[in-house]
């Protein structure tokens, strides 16, 4: 295959990752983006792309790590700015979720108390 012939070409892994996303195979895409990062760790764009797919997969902590690396490598460039915007959005979403969860808790309890509480069977599921 073309990838076998170009195994030292970081862009080939990036392209294959994009194709796998279009095919609905995010786990496989992550593997390809990680290979691109390994071959060219100074390329902020690869970290950014990896962060994007991890965020879509709801792996927010891992996505934050990748976005932060992209910002570190491209502090003043467009990729760094976009990665920072994603970092801010992920942090805002996380703090918003925490606030909603805490607002619905009885006084003196914690979010982990709510998570451990038994389900109320009287509430119909939708």
Tell me what you see in this structure.
By secondary structure, this protein is mainly alpha-helical. The chain has a single domain, classed as Tetratricopeptide repeat domain (Serine Threonine Protein Phosphatase 5, Tetratricopeptide repeat). It has seven helices and no strands. It has helices spanning 2-5, 10-22, 26-39, 44-56, 60-73, 78-103, 111-116. The N and C termini lie far apart (48 Å). Residues 100-106 and 109-126 have low confidence and may be disordered.
Shape: globular
The CATH class label is Mainly Alpha
The count of helical stretches stands at: 7
> What order do the SSEs take from the amino end to the carboxyl end, as H and E?
HHHHHHH
Name of the CATH homologous superfamily: Tetratricopeptide repeat domain
Helix content: over 70%
| CATH third-tier fold name | Serine Threonine Protein Phosphatase 5, Tetratricopeptide repeat
How much strand content do the residues show? under 5%
Task: Give the second-level CATH assignment, the architecture.
Answer: Alpha Horseshoe
What's the overall average pLDDT, rounded?
Answer: 80
Radius of gyration: 19 Å
Q: Major sheet, described briefly?
A: none
**Total of domains:** 1
Overall strand count: 0
- The helix/strand class is mainly alpha
Measure the end-to-end span.
48 Å
Note poorly predicted spans. Answer: 100-106, 109-126
């Amino acid at each position: 295959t073309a990838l076998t012939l170009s195994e030292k070409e970081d862009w080939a892994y990036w392209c294959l990752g994009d194709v796998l996303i279009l095919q609905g195979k995010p786990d496989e895409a992550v593997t390809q983006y990680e290979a691109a990062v390994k071959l060219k760790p100074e390329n902020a764009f690869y970290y950014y792309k990896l962060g994007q797919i991890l965020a879509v997969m709801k792996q927010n902590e891992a996505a934050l790590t990748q976005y932060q690396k992209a910002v570190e490598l491209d502090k003043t460039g467009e990729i760094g700015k976009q990665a920072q915007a994603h970092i801010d959005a992920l942090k805002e979403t996380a703090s918003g979720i925490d606030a909603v969860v805490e607002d619905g808790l009885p006084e003196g309890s914690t979010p982990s108390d709510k998570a451990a509480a038994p389900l109320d069977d009287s509430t119909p599921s939708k």
